[in-house]
Amino acid sequence: MLPFVLEGGSVSQMPVAEGKSVQQTVELLTRKLEMLGAEKQGTFCVDCETYHTAASTLGSQGQAGKLMYVMHNSEYPLSCFALFENGPWLIADTNFDVLMVKLKGFFQSAKASKIETRGTRYQYCDFLVKVGTVTMGPSARGISVEVEYGPCVVASDCWSLLLEFLQSFLGSHTPGAPSVFGNRHDAVYGPADTMIQYMELFNKIRKQQQVPVAGIR
Amino acid sequence: MEAPPVTMMPVTGGTINMMEYLLQGSVLDHSLESLIHRLRGLCDNMEPETFLDHEMVFLLKGQQASPFVLRARRSMDRGGAPWHLRYLGQPEMGDKNRHALVRNCVDIATSENLTDFLMEMGFRMDHEFVAKGHLFRKGIMKIMVYKIFRILVPGNTDSTEALSLSYLVELSVVAPAGQDMVSDDMRNFAEQLKPLVHLEKIDPKRLM
């Protein structure tokens, strides 16, 4: 089973509703899903830590410091995903985290930039929907919506179906096609594609200012 | 910098420190068959297992004195198997009575684009080789009898040449830190392989 996944849901695409908090907007969404007939199926969590090349390594390598993201997804509990933005990615087992501890003289973790999204999983026929609250430390920074269409592994084959489903509960906030597909519409979709989308989403949210409680876009 | 020496504490920072216990020796090519025969008798009963692996050793140089070493290994005869990334720490100095070489080890299974990813992290390949041989198990002990081949053209694993007229024999166990009785069991097993092969604790630093 390889899912087709789409992220809508940075603050600009899944805006916090007027006069409401992140928490309330999440509740609005989940209530819509439940009215559609979706069933709750446990929770999910996707987290991301940022590492940058330590100053001591930079000089000798002669390259600008790069950011490496190490992510985990509760959907794949035994795996660890390591990514460079616009660069190669690696799927490894969870011992990769142990290796990063050994590498701490060369790669420093920016503790303050740890970001994660947590929420509920909903199953609606062949669709798996995950609505999560994105947090950095103690503050809620946005909402992530992930939709998976189980039976299909090639993006271009089911994009319109996914779009239709998204419109049924996101309405006008339905996002466009993720950049991950680019010109790879016919390629087989994999878990790394999901993680790349989450990484882009987290980066977007990190750059935005904190959402005030009043919830203006 | 190399990670600080792993103490005998079994757990650091929430993860169990795994240690590799190692004994090594070698046999000349013409003695291979007798050794294999004895190993088949002593080891766990299973289909004879051979392997053909390509290993690349990567270094990350920083301002620290010694570079960080990682070993990336892939199977050349089993398609679809994950790549194996391995970190090996400095050998633990200490008990002269300890029978095996002990060093911290971290083993990670990865997807195929490991070399590209390591290069992006700043690692550079130092050397590579092909290992071809036999694998045996006895309980948690792993015995490998293999020949090392030098790769003549970088990246081309088809043209190789044997490094020597002998096979390297390695007896190893990966176990949580603090289990020194493991090296006693290894010593006892190694006794049974004498005089075909003498397995000993070889400190790599002494060879340099």
From TrEMBL, chain A:
<comment type="similarity">
    <text>Belongs to the Mediator complex subunit 20 family.</text>
</comment>
<dbReference type="GO" id="GO:0003713">
    <property type="term" value="F:transcription coactivator activity"/>
</dbReference>
<dbReference type="Pfam" id="PF08612">
    <property type="entry name" value="Med20"/>
</dbReference>
<dbReference type="InterPro" id="IPR013921">
    <property type="entry name" value="Mediator_Med20"/>
</dbReference>
<dbReference type="GO" id="GO:0016592">
    <property type="term" value="C:mediator complex"/>
</dbReference>
<dbReference type="GO" id="GO:0070847">
    <property type="term" value="C:core mediator complex"/>
</dbReference>
<dbReference type="GO" id="GO:0035914">
    <property type="term" value="P:skeletal muscle cell differentiation"/>
</dbReference>
<keyword id="KW-0804">Transcription</keyword>
<comment type="subunit">
    <text>Component of the Mediator complex, which is composed of MED1, MED4, MED6, MED7, MED8, MED9, MED10, MED11, MED12, MED13, MED13L, MED14, MED15, MED16, MED17, MED18, MED19, MED20, MED21, MED22, MED23, MED24, MED25, MED26, MED27, MED29, MED30, MED31, CCNC, CDK8 and CDC2L6/CDK11. The MED12, MED13, CCNC and CDK8 subunits form a distinct module termed the CDK8 module. Mediator containing the CDK8 module is less active than Mediator lacking this module in supporting transcriptional activation.</text>
</comment>
<comment type="function">
    <text>Component of the Mediator complex, a coactivator involved in the regulated transcription of nearly all RNA polymerase II-dependent genes. Mediator functions as a bridge to convey information from gene-specific regulatory proteins to the basal RNA polymerase II transcription machinery. Mediator is recruited to promoters by direct interactions with regulatory proteins and serves as a scaffold for the assembly of a functional preinitiation complex with RNA polymerase II and the general transcription factors.</text>
</comment>
<dbReference type="GO" id="GO:0006357">
    <property type="term" value="P:regulation of transcription by RNA polymerase II"/>
</dbReference>
<keyword id="KW-0539">Nucleus</keyword>
<protein>
    <recommendedName>
        <fullName>Mediator of RNA polymerase II transcription subunit 20</fullName>
    </recommendedName>
</protein>
<keyword id="KW-0010">Activator</keyword>
<keyword id="KW-0805">Transcription regulation</keyword>
TrEMBL record, chain B:
<keyword id="KW-0804">Transcription</keyword>
<comment type="subunit">
    <text>Component of the Mediator complex, which is composed of MED1, MED4, MED6, MED7, MED8, MED9, MED10, MED11, MED12, MED13, MED13L, MED14, MED15, MED16, MED17, MED18, MED19, MED20, MED21, MED22, MED23, MED24, MED25, MED26, MED27, MED29, MED30, MED31, CCNC, CDK8 and CDC2L6/CDK11. The MED12, MED13, CCNC and CDK8 subunits form a distinct module termed the CDK8 module. Mediator containing the CDK8 module is less active than Mediator lacking this module in supporting transcriptional activation.</text>
</comment>
<keyword id="KW-0805">Transcription regulation</keyword>
<dbReference type="Pfam" id="PF09637">
    <property type="entry name" value="Med18"/>
</dbReference>
<keyword id="KW-0010">Activator</keyword>
<dbReference type="GO" id="GO:0006357">
    <property type="term" value="P:regulation of transcription by RNA polymerase II"/>
</dbReference>
<dbReference type="GO" id="GO:0003712">
    <property type="term" value="F:transcription coregulator activity"/>
</dbReference>
<keyword id="KW-0539">Nucleus</keyword>
<dbReference type="GO" id="GO:0006369">
    <property type="term" value="P:termination of RNA polymerase II transcription"/>
</dbReference>
<dbReference type="GO" id="GO:0016592">
    <property type="term" value="C:mediator complex"/>
</dbReference>
<comment type="similarity">
    <text>Belongs to the Mediator complex subunit 18 family.</text>
</comment>
<comment type="function">
    <text>Component of the Mediator complex, a coactivator involved in the regulated transcription of nearly all RNA polymerase II-dependent genes. Mediator functions as a bridge to convey information from gene-specific regulatory proteins to the basal RNA polymerase II transcription machinery. Mediator is recruited to promoters by direct interactions with regulatory proteins and serves as a scaffold for the assembly of a functional preinitiation complex with RNA polymerase II and the general transcription factors.</text>
</comment>
<protein>
    <recommendedName>
        <fullName>Mediator of RNA polymerase II transcription subunit 18</fullName>
    </recommendedName>
</protein>
<dbReference type="InterPro" id="IPR019095">
    <property type="entry name" value="Mediator_Med18"/>
</dbReference>
<dbReference type="GO" id="GO:0070847">
    <property type="term" value="C:core mediator complex"/>
</dbReference>
